[in-house]
Amino acid sequence: MTSYRELIKKTQQYLPADKIAVIESAYDFALKAHEGQSRASGEPYIEHPLQTALILAELQLDANSIAAALLHDIPENCGIPVTDIQAAFGDEVAKLVDGVTKLGKLSLPGEAVAATSNQVENLRKMLVAMAEDLRVVFIKLADRLHNMRTLQALSPERQHRIAQETLEIYAPLSHRLGIWELKWQLEDLSFRYLEPEKYKKVARLVAARRAQRERLITEVKQKLEAEFEKVGLKAEISGRPKHIYSIYQKMEKYSALGKTFDDIHDLLALRVLVATVQDCYSAVGVIHSLWHPLPGDFDDYIANPKQNGYQSLHTIVMYQGTSLEMQIRTHGMHHTSEYGVAAHWRYKEGDHKDIQFEERISWLRQLIEWHRELAGAEEFLESVKTDIFIDQVFVYTPKGEIKDLPKGATPLDFAYRIHTELGHRCIGAKVNGSLMSLNYQLKNGDIVEIMSSKGDRAPSRDWLNPQLGYVNTSHAREKIRQWFRKQERAENIEHGREVLDKEMRRLGIKLTEREELAKMFNYENVDDFLAAIGYGGVSTHQIAAKLTTQPETPRVVSGPVLPQQSVLSVKVLGVGDMVANLAQCCRPVPGDDIIGYVTRNRGVSIHRRDCYNIINEDEKERLVLVEWGESDALYPVNIHVESWDRVGLMRDITTIVAEEKLNITAASSVSHDDHTVSEYFTLGTKDLAQLSRLLGKIEGVRGVISVTRAGDESTTKSRPLT
């Protein structure tokens, strides 16, 4: 078989003969076990473990890893127990196979809200497996990559589910481990199945510019090679391809700024490989002498490596009016950038440990300790997404110790990372010697000094408000929740009741049955639910999101949708196809409890159930149940802001609305003699969750006294429902 011969050829390049014999024996064992089995594509099943092993051979992993890759599907697919593998290949291979089998059940839903205890346990197993032996995860990543390469044989539903899981878990995990070669392939393949039309569009745009890119890269290479030769610098120069998904992400970012694909000038990239670290800095000097570097676009990841081990010099220069990105690194650094921690794998023999390798995964062991404290499924899954699967920033203590935090972390997150008590007693922070707010988002290289009270001090409940942005790591959030959880239950219940009532009033929702909402969050006891709100276990944003997505409550609206948005589909239950319009008297938004009213000549009018016109309607037989289909449409809603009058108030509010990517369609204000002002806005929103987030942010604007969803005309009968 061609694949098998290729595997042996690759492994012979770096493994001794006795190790090759282990791989050959594992292949024979797997071939016999999978005899007669086929994949969904129709090819012999043995091709899958072979291709998985080939991917690991490209990473130059050890013989036991490759043997385990060949054997990894046998316990689950062939009915052969792990003990048989243990007897044939030893404890180490058997442990790797068992670990991969357990990870095979891993699954993470899109928003990680409705996770089962089984999914949470699988995620915990993944973290433990990573901490004990990273080779388990290497095998699983290779397994997933080959599955993605052959995904076309599955049904569209399974394609979408597997691609979504790959983009949310496996690609970020590859990034966290620094395995770029796997990361970009997993991202591109996932994007291809999740957004096929967008994938094709980006691919066409990139292909159209290929000739121009190749010409420019050839010119730059020739000029660089000539200059390097003059100074006696030996370098290997090549074009670095930008991958489809990364280009798409940049297009999305540019689109938000009103730019197009034609405005993306850094699609051109060159990689310069040299022999030594000194040569890296010499090469940068030559490059900057040829072309003008862009200010602020030089990054030294050699002196300050990324946590996953990545090292390189990055610079962007202007060449013929085009920005050109360059990466300069040694050959060894390049190997690490492509294969991450896998490139530095040195499995311990006896008492020997690779100290450098141990340091590079210390972040993982620390995360394991923190996650043991998280009992709840939602808290655990939240921590996985925020603390593992997003980019990191690296900041310093005043003594020069480096700390890594998730991107978006604040000084308060930093304080809790140092010590829980320091977080509780934090009263301020200095960043690079200057006082900064506690919700300032830290940047790479920041020096952070925490100011704390000398005596005992309680954390603020505001720190748990996601709209205010004080803490953005699950570790800090859980420590604050733990503190409030220990407080008097009666105090938490009372505070929870105040928070819930305020949120309901702010959103214009009349919720007389708290039991119903408590059950939505799986609380049988209302006091337990209120206490959870009180200590921060349930946030107002979660409440708004739950009201928006609860399936048994009809909730989406139609009617005068904002002009630039798409039209929404509406199901009028028991009536059939009828035109549905949003009632002007109460203007419901997704998340509101709604009902339809059959008019005489305008189809069905959609109202909030607490609308005055509905409550006082005499012809109850004209009321019908309605449900709404999903849509990206925006729905008009009125909000009312009471604040102290000051210069710049309107600007600050409209800036927040713009950051939420919402449109203001009408605005007015009324000044009062007591130096307050009432401001009224009509804007488009997707649902209650977005509205709740927006109102929370506006409430944090300096001088704002209150912000509520305006009652429109729902408290006054404005017109008959004809």
What's the structural blueprint in terms of helices and strands?
Layout: H1 2-12, H2 17-33, H3 47-58, H4 63-71, H5 74-78, H6 82-89, H7 91-103, H8 117-132, H9 135-149, H10 156-176, H11 180-194, H12 196-208, H13 210-230, E1 236-239, H14 244-256, E2 269-274, H15 277-290, E3 293-300, E4 313-319, E5 322-330, H16 331-339, H17 355-360, H18 362-371, H19 377-387, E6 392-396, E7 402-406, H20 411-418, H21 420-424, E8 426-431, E9 434-436, E10 448-452, H22 474-485, H23 489-507, H24 514-520, H25 526-535, H26 540-549, E11 570-572, E12 580-582, E13 594-598, E14 604-608, H27 612-615, E15 623-624, E16 626-628, E17 635-644, H28 649-659, E18 664-671, E19 676-685, H29 688-699, E20 704-709
Question: Could you explain the architecture of this structure?
Answer:
It is built from 29 helices and 20 strands. By secondary structure, it is of the alpha+beta class. The strands form 6 sheets. Strands 1-2-5-4-3 form a 5-stranded mixed beta sheet. A 4-stranded mixed beta sheet has the order 12-14-13-15, with no helix packed on it. The protein has 6 domains: 162 residues, Hypothetical protein af1432; 139 residues, Beta Polymerase, domain 2 (2-Layer Sandwich); 95 residues, Beta-grasp domain (Ubiquitin-like (UB roll), Roll), CATH 3.10.20; 50 residues, no CATH class; 59 residues, no CATH class; 75 residues, Alpha-Beta Plaits, CATH 3.30.70.
